[in-house]
Amino acid sequence: MVPIRGTPYQGSYSAKGNANANNLTGPAMIKHVADELGEMAKFIQDTSAGASLKDKNTQDVKVLIGV
Questions:
Q1: pTM for the structure as a whole
Q2: Is the pLDDT of residue 61 over 70?
Q3: Which is nearest to 10 in space by CA: 18, 1, 20?
């Protein structure tokens, strides 16, 4: 175990791990970026649907905008 400076945690290392997993361009980073882009696309879709005035009572929206 190796102490991590400034924390109460300790890290350990395994020689059996895939060395490519530690690269910034490795499979873990590619999966992370793909997941984040998917979450961002869902957020944009949800917020766009909420901001749309289609099929909504625009009188209520104008009162809220006036506030």
A1: 0.53
A2: no
A3: 1
